[in-house]
């Protein structure tokens, strides 16, 4: 019984001679994962102006931008000495389900807002709270009134953006604008309380 290495088949599974696949033929990793940085940037830019929000860019919902904003909020909270990764993620999930349930109960059978879109909207409209968290790093701890006033302004900004997008993206949302705004106000008050305290 002998073992002859010379007779082994050179066309094994790890031999790429004559193969047609190479790294140049592969599509970029971001495209393969469905992450489009220019789309994330345009959605983020549309939230920056609270008085004129472009709802057409938000018709195609994604979760890569909200995950980026979630990580930014967690990073700023970590720089403030607060380790709240799980709390923030849990609140995003619960608030998305809350907004989904509230809108679809108000709209009845004509409610066409799905949970993926709600999570995308809640995540992108978290941008003012991320800005508040970054700005609160430079405000001294003793300035409680300044923190509360700033938190109120940023909560109103996030509420206006989120309620405007929900009303414009869903059918029949205009008649329930006040109740949707109240639900969004409660959601972003919770996130701003994490930043203030």
From TrEMBL:
The keyword Cytoplasm does not apply. Keywords: Membrane, Transmembrane, Transmembrane helix. GO terms for cellular component: Golgi membrane; trans-Golgi network. Residues 1-23 are annotated as: Disordered. Residues 46-194 form the Yip1 domain. It is a multi-pass membrane protein. PANTHER family: GOLGI MEMBRANE PROTEIN YIP1, PROTEIN YIP. Belongs to the YIP1 family. This is Protein YIP.
């Amino acid at each position: 019984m002998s073992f002859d290495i010379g007779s082994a088949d050179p066309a094994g599974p790890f031999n790429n001679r004559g193969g047609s696949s190479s790294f140049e033929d592969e599509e970029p990793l971001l495209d393969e994962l469905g992450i489009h940085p220019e789309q994330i940037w345009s959605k983020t830019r549309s939230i920056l102006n609270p008085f004129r929000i472009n709802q057409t860019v938000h018709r195609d919902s994604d979760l890569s931008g909200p995950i980026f904003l979630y990580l930014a909020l967690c990073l700023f909270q970590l720089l403030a000495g607060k380790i709240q990764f799980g709390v923030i993620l849990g609140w995003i999930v619960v608030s998305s389900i809350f907004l989904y349930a509230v809108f679809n109960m108000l709209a009845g059978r004509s409610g066409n807002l799905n949970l993926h879109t709600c999570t995308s909207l809640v995540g992108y409209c978290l941008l003012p709270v991320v800005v508040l968290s970054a700005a609160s790093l430079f405000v001294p701890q003793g300035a409680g009134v300044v923190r509360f006033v700033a938190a109120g302004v940023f909560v109103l900004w996030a509420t206006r953006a989120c309620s405007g997008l929900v009303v414009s993206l869903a059918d029949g949302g205009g008649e329930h604008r006040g109740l949707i705004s109240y639900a969004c106000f409660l959601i972003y008050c919770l996130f701003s309380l994490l930043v203030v305290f």
